[in-house]
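User: UDP-N-acetylmuramoylalanine--D-glutamate ligase. Structure?
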Amino acid sequence: MSKKRLVILGGGESGVGTALLGKAKGYEVFVSDKGTIKVKYKKVLIHNEIEWEEQQHTESKILNADVVMKSPGISDKVALVQQLIQKNIPVISEIEFASKYTNATIVGITGSNGKTTTASLMHHLLKQEIEVGLAGNIGDSFAKQVLEKDYKNYVLEISSFQLDGIIDFKPQIAVITNITPDHLDRYDNQFEKYIASKFSIAKNQTKEDYLIYDADDEVITNWLDAHPVQSTLLPFSLVRKIENGAYLEQENIILTIDNNQIIMPKTNLALEGKHNIKNAMAASTVAHLLKIRKQTIRESLENFQGVEHRLENVLKINKVQYINDSKATNVNATYYALESMDAPTVWIVGGVDKGNNYQELYPFVNEKVKAIICLGVDNQKIIEAFGNMVDIIVETQYMTEAIKIAYKLAESGDNVLLSPACASFDLFENYEDRGRQFKEAVRNL
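Assistant: Predicted structure:
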């Protein structure tokens, strides 16, 4: 009997991890990348004698696959993927492939914003008492961890693109942080399709499984009303009382599961802002389900440091706080950032616009922003949106220049906030590169 053929499109972290797991499980593996494969990944493929190609897709070596794992960055609309679908060859994501080879308890987190912080916070809470891996869109590949570590539990940060490639994947605990329009270019500009994609995290769940979600998010609650799921629901809310789940009562977070209650003062949370109360609710609900002790949950919420490039306090210079929120690649993420500003703010914004509507930011900009620095190739839309609201709008294409301007404009007690609301590809490699350049420029002032 011949080996089954696993073809992997994309030679990045998830692709190479899947290749290693596939080989270990007896597949004949072929990795194909239309771009170039990073040297560190090439070395791994060569060392493990896995066949690969770059800067091309050889159809004769791909269309004979039994199963194809494609990188989340490749759209389903690509001609090659369409051909595979027409030939009824399953095209799946890394989480679908890897989950078949582990019996671990899986916590899956998706949402438009907050998933990295929530996943990191959850991992921080759980690792105090149980063995747990952190993977998905974050850290080392899930497939590679299943092969090398096989933890008893995993926290997976999962994007809608990864969820589009699942068939049987089922997390025992699913979390949806929020749903706002993002990446609509990949969903025929139909918000409904994007929402359905997020909800597929729960499509294989049964009543033994849990779905934790933001009950204040109308997109989520309306969808659940119209498309009920099998899962046991554990909502969280800042505005109404929740019997099973988490809510805010005065200064306390109250979490109840099957009549077992934890009360935590919100003032003790390490991370500030309303959205971080929600992240704490989601994370502590998961920790409670996985039998982490109440005391441990409380302590972990108090000492969690947060995520790089997400509302990260960089330095205070002349009583001006510089804040790196480069991970804010859409309007909704920047909404949280501006909402949490408690001082006049010089706001650095701009990049590649993903069809942004800046209207929801108007109240905060009116109230808190004293100057705007546009850091992008095309800033027209930002200038039109906010031109009447702030006295000073400046354009630049260099981070060092942006920081020098901010330094001149900011006065004692102000904030300088990098929260671009846009993708970074016009001037930077990625949002991490943008955030690091910001921090470096601030340190060089």
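The mean pLDDT is 93. The chain has three domains: 5-91, 96-303, 312-443.
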